[in-house]
Amino acid sequence: MNDIVVDGNHSPVVYGIGVNVNTGDVFPSSFTHKGPAEELRSARTFTGGQMAEIYDSSRGLIKIGPCSWSPNLDIGFWLSQEDDTILKYLSTSPLAEPPHFVQHMKTTIQFLLEHPSSDSLFPGGQPQLYHRSERGDWERAA
C-alpha cells in the first residue's frame, strides 16, 4: 500500500507518518528534528547494534542504554567518496532513499570517528537520559 513504481524502481509513497493520539488518524509527515542524541542512536545501529525502544512514556524520558563498538578508523574512507558511491554501497535500497540519506551517513561516520570508543559516552556504564524542558526541547537529565 505504500509502494510506487517509477521507471521500474519501487519507492515508498510516504517516508514518515504521524498519528493523532486523540483520534487515531494517521497522516503523512516529515520530521526535521529527530530527537536527542541522533548521532549516538545512529552510530549504535550503523555499527550493528539493535534498534531499541528508547521512550518511556510513563516517565516522559528517552533512555539511550549503553552500547559499544570497536574503533574503526577505516570508515573515514567513506567521507571522501562521492554521494552516489555512498548511496550505492551503504544503503540496502539506494533507489528508494530519502534525500537526506547520504548526509545522515556522513554525519554518523563523523560521529564514530570522533568517538572511536563509546565508553566515554556512558560513564560508569550508565545510560543517557533525556527529558523535555519547560520550553518543550529535549535536554539531558542529570
| Averaged pLDDT | 92
Placed side by side, the strands forming the largest sheet appear as 5-6-7-8
List low-confidence stretches.
none
Proportion of helical residues: 10-25%
**How would you sum up the global shape?**
flat
Residues in β-strands, percent:
15-25%
Give the SSE string.
EEEEHEEHHEE
Over all CA atoms, what is the radius of gyration?
18 Å
What's the main sheet like? Answer: 4 strands, antiparallel
Domain count: 1
Structural class: alpha+beta
How many beta strands in the DSSP annotation? Answer: 8
Question: Would you write up a description of this structure?
Answer:
The protein is α+β, with helices and mostly antiparallel strands. It has one domain. It is built from three helices and eight strands, in the order ββββαββααββ. The protein has helices at about 40-45, 85-90, 100-115, and strands at about 5, 10, 15-20, 25-30, 55, 60-65, 130, 140. The strands form three sheets. It has a four-stranded antiparallel beta sheet with strand order 5-6-7-8, with no helix packed on it. The longest helix is centred in the last third of the chain and has 14 residues, at about 100-115. This is Protein N-terminal asparagine amidohydrolase.
